[in-house]
Design a protein that fits this description.
Blueprint lengths: L11 H9 L5 E5 L3 H15 L4 H4 E5 L5 H13 L8 E6 L9 H7 L6 E7 L7 H9 L1 E4 L4 H14 L3 E2 L1 H11 L3 H14 L5 E2 L1 H7 L4 H13 L3 H13 L4 H23 L4 H8 L3 H12 L3 H20 L4 H11 L9
Parallel strand pairs: 1-4, 1-5, 2-3, 3-4, 6-7
Helix pairs in contact: 7-9, 11-12, 11-13, 11-15, 13-15, 13-16, 14-15, 16-17
Length: about 350
């Protein structure tokens, strides 16, 4: 499997339209950088909100209404003419229409009343679908991937609102410690702003003193997804780390450490050693040991030992140039995220 294609950050499309006041009839905000996506979705709704909103605004959530029922409800609302207003706004979250084609809905929007505006918020979209292509061509497809550059705008916006400044080196240290989850970063920024009360600049020393280190937990997120046999989540965690700048050899070393820890915990528990004792020996918090013990329980001793041996073999092949690092690590992750094992 080749390295996942980088998603272009087009989140500025929505903000550009809000700033100019020139709006489209169709909007799709998609991506896993949920902080900026959700913020822009709220700002877009506010900017597009029609007169007499209680009569001319409808909102739907695909987590509570799905499939044909959701499709029919949206169409019924869209077909209703606006009441003493020029436009009607329909907001839809997590429909799933942009992952699995609904041809009935795709055909409908081509003849939807021009007085209706549709905005969608999704976790992901398939650009091959005709519905996605239609939104991209006739409206706005605004994507919000988790990238270093994509995080810069919301971080600097929060700091500017609080009259704080940060140097590029400090920003890099913040991301290095906090990771790519903007929701988590926003909480850490609140701590930094309070900690640096009375001065403008946030320094590397401030970041080191205040910001929680997510590196270990992010590493475990990949391991835990593999233990859950969730290939998609495991590969997504891998690609997140690559976007953060971690190289494949570093990821392989991290996985070796993580699975070796799982084996140590599994062996210790077999001998009757408690989680509290393990936490002290491994320098982990008790909840972290509990998490890893649960992950270890989903593997046999043979599987854990086999993974560690596979890591050592791949490390040597990478070192000698016998294998492509990206290909080898992806295959390793897929193998140990699958219920049926294949030789690598």
């Amino acid at each position: 499997m080749a390295f996942k294609k980088e998603i272009k950050d087009t989140s500025h499309y929505v903000r550009d339209d809000i700033k100019s006041g020139n709006f489209k009839r169709f909007y799709l905000l998609s991506g896993d950088e949920t902080y900026s996506r959700d913020l822009d979705f709220s700002l877009l709704k506010k900017a597009l909100m029609p007169e007499m909103a209680e009569m001319n605004f409808s909102e739907f959530d695909g987590r509570f209404m799905k499939g044909a029922a959701l499709c029919d409800a949206i169409i019924e609302a869209a077909d209703t003419l606006p009441f003493f207003a020029e436009k009607k706004l329909i907001s839809v979250s997590f429909s799933g229409f942009f992952k699995k084609a609904d041809e009935h809905f795709t055909e409908y929007i081509k003849k939807m009343p021009e007085s209706t505006i549709l905005i969608f918020k999704e976790n992901e979209c398939d650009k091959r679908l005709s519905l996605t292509k239609y939104f991209d061509k006739e409206g706005r497809l605004s994507e919000y991937p988790k990238t270093l550059e994509g995080l810069r705008r919301p971080i600097l916006t929060i700091l500017a609102k609080n009259k704080k400044q940060i140097r590029p080196s400090t920003y890099e240290r913040l991301i290095d410690k906090a990771g790519l989850d903007m929701e988590f970063i926003s909480h850490e920024l609140e701590k930094l702003i309070a900690y640096t009360e009375g001065r403008e600049e946030i320094t590397i020393a401030d970041v080191n003193a205040v910001v929680s280190d997510r590196t270990e937990e992010d590493a475990f997120a990949l391991t835990n997804a593999m233990a859950d046999r969730n290939k998609k989540a495991a590969l997504d965690a891998l690609y997140d780390k690559l976007r953060l700048g971690t190289n494949m050899f570093g990821i392989l070393t991290m996985l070796y450490h993580q699975f070796n820890t799982l084996l140590i915990i599994k062996e210790a528990q077999a001998k009757g050693i408690s989680n509290e004792e393990l936490a002290a020996k491994l320098n982990y918090k008790p909840y972290a040991v509990k998490q890893r013990a649960e992950a270890a329980a989903r593997y046999t001793f043979k599987e854990l030992t086999s993974f560690i041996n596979d890591c050592a073999v791949i490390q040597e092949k990478i070192r000698t140039g016998e294998t492509d690092p990206e290909f080898a690590v992806e295959r390793l992750i897929i193998k140990y995220s699958s219920r049926i094992k294949a030789e690598i």
